[in-house]
Amino acid sequence: MRVLVTFAVEAEFAAWRRLRRYNFVDYLGLKLWRTQIGAAEVTVLITGIGAQAASRAMDLMMRMADKHQYFDVCISSGLAGALCEGLNVGDIVAPKELLSEMQHADLSSDRIAVDGELRQLALQQGAKDTNCLVTTDQILVKATQKKECASRAQSVDMESFEVVKSALAWGAKGVVIRAISDAANEDMPIDFNRTLSARNDVSLGKVLLQLLNNPLALPRLVRFGQQSQRAGARLAEFLENYVQQCAGSAGMQEPAKGVTAA
């Protein structure tokens, strides 16, 4: 069984990477790591932050898969923001469907459903049962922005819709498993939209520039970093268990076909 797991940035993958040995693979600039977990050959892909970065990375990944292998399962993972007060920092969420703020000419709906069996397996292992995750093109910095989205979804990220959309188009089964890094009523310590680099990750220089302009944000930034690390550690433990369970489930061996609209 072959499993693809995606993260936006290496920091989200760091805790899981420390749990086992991975082999690094360089394919056309893609950052890939491979390991074996039980009966599953696992490939980890770092997509970069944002829907466009995720779409480009998944396109390259599809070309690689066509030449060398296919994937049975694709897991869009990493951190997510809470949009409802029922979710706490460190909670693992497995949404039923994904909503995109961006238009897709090749889809009849702005919603897609994840694989029900994969999601049910995550719920059995303790993931929170949420209905929807929305993929946005901007980081929601203010609690007021999160509140505006709360009627449509319970959590938010910037990559999952594109990742799962591409995976389903390949014929793989797609699911989202993410850890909550910030609560619905919590403002971000800085505007992370202004810290993104040309490589679609967070630029340390741009972070320092924001702190230079607002030094009082430093304690909140440190606290947010600690929250994210704790969430990442919980996610790593969850994924380690979850992938083993996937590999042992007979129903996961037959890939799905085509994109499923919710």
Describe the structure.
- With 262 residues, this protein is of the alpha/beta class.
- The protein contains 7 helices and 10 strands.
- The protein has helices spanning 10-17, 51-68, 116-124, 143-149, 160-170, 204-213, 218-247, and strands at residues 2-7, 23-27, 30-37, 40-46, 73-82, 92-100, 111-113, 128-135, 155-157, 173-182.
- Strands 5-9-8-6-10 form a 5-stranded mixed β-barrel.
- Strand 2 and strand 3 (30-37) form a beta hairpin.
- Helix 2 (51-68) packs parallel to helix 5 (160-170).
- It is globular and about 50 Å long.
- Mean pLDDT is 89; it is low at 255-262.
Key structural traits:
single chain, alpha/beta, five-stranded mixed beta barrel, 7 helices
The backbone outline, from C-alpha atoms, is: globular
Kindly state the mean pLDDT as a whole number? 89
Strand order, biggest sheet?
5-9-8-6-10
- Tell me the structural class: alpha/beta
Q: Total number of helical segments? A: 7
- How can the largest sheet be summarized? 5 strands, mixed, barrel
Low-confidence stretches: 255-262
Helix content: 25-40%
Beginning-to-end CA distance, first to last residue: 27 Å
Radius of gyration: 17 Å
Number of strands: 10
Q: How much of the sequence is in beta strands?
A: 25-35%
What is the N-to-C succession of helices and strands? Answer: EHEEEHEEEHEHEHEHH
